[in-house]
Amino acid sequence: FGTATDVHDLKQTQEALRQSRELLHAITDAAPDPIFAKDRSGTMLMANRATLWAIGHPAEDVLGKSDAEWLHDQPERAEAIIANDQRII
Fold first, then answer.
1. Which terminus of the chain has fewer CB atoms gathered within 10 Å of its CB, N or C?
2. Which stretches of the chain drop beneath a pLDDT of 70?
3. Does this model's pTM top 0.85?
4. In terms of DSSP H, where are the helices of the chain?
5. CA–centroid distance for 56 within its chain
């Protein structure tokens, strides 16, 4: 006995999502200004090249981490950024 599942629509949707992400990254990385996104808890979700250059850290140091985590050696700076983010939110 066996089963068959049509995954054609799922594969198309996944490919469209992949292409959209690639386009978003190409556009944001080409921008001369910092562009980044954080979730409500302050975790860095995405950062373009200009952002990474401005903060002086590579993507692997900041993506998926909060300001307190990637600025663990600069707690005053992290606190200021967190306070500003909270004010903006």
1. N
2. none
3. no
4. 8-30, 49-55, 59-62, 67-70, 75-88
5. 16
